[in-house]
Amino acid sequence: MKSNRVSTSRSRQPVARSLALEEYVPYKLALLSSRLSHGLESACERECGISRTDWRVLASIAQQEGCPAASLVDPHIMDAVAVHRAVRRLETAGLVVAKAVEADRRMRLLMTTASGRKVYETLVPYALELEERMLSALPESNRAQFAASLGKLLSIPIEDLLV
């Protein structure tokens, strides 16, 4: 099957088109992501005293109760060290517990505590409000198409984006 991947040959001819950073879509997506993350981070810190990384890990655990810690690691989003540190902070704060698996004592399954579930439920409305504020910049008729387009972009294998 033919790949859609662009050739990585270093002998490419110079491109006539220049890069205008303010119009470059990956830059715009990074800016939007940063703004949204900072917006939610303020609620995380103000309401619950946790960091953005802690929130991401807590939300992942709350949505996948009993998941192994390794399943939370995505090297393109959060590395193993960041996840491990967040899990430790969440455990110390009493928001998650880790249970060893009998068959493999090295594997730990993560679950939220009652306090962790309360923090999660406290922050979800802020996350949804942030999403609504972002989407309110688009006409209602374009929102589903925007979400579908993002899904399509996110489905591109990371290998196809390496240049």
Features:
163 residues, mainly alpha, 5 helices
Radius of gyration: 20 Å
* Low-pLDDT regions: none
Please state the average pLDDT score. 87
Multimerization status: single chain
Structural class: mainly alpha
As a percent range, the share of helical residues equals 40-55%
Give me the side-by-side strand order of the main sheet: 1-3-2
Q: In angstroms, what separates the terminal alpha carbons? A: 20 Å
| SS summary, helix count | 5
Describe the main β-sheet briefly: 3 strands, antiparallel
Task: Indicate the proportion of strand residues.
Answer: 5-15%
* Shape estimate: globular
**Element order, helices and strands?**
HHEHEEHH
Total number of strands: 3
Structure explained in plain terms:
A hairpin with a 2-residue loop joins strand 2 and strand 3 (about 105-110). The chain has helices at about 25-50, 50-65, 80-90, 115-135, 140-155; strands spanning about 65-70, 95-100, 105-110. The chain has a three-stranded antiparallel β-sheet. It is built from five helices and three strands. Helix 1 packs across helix 4, helix 2 packs across helix 3 (about 80-90) and helix 2 (about 50-65) packs across helix 4. It is mainly alpha-helical.
Question: Can you summarize this structure?
Answer:
The protein has helices at residues 25-48, 52-63, 80-92, 114-135, 140-154, and strands at residues 67-68, 96-101, 104-112. With 163 residues, the protein is mainly alpha-helical. Strands 1-3-2 form a three-stranded antiparallel β-sheet.
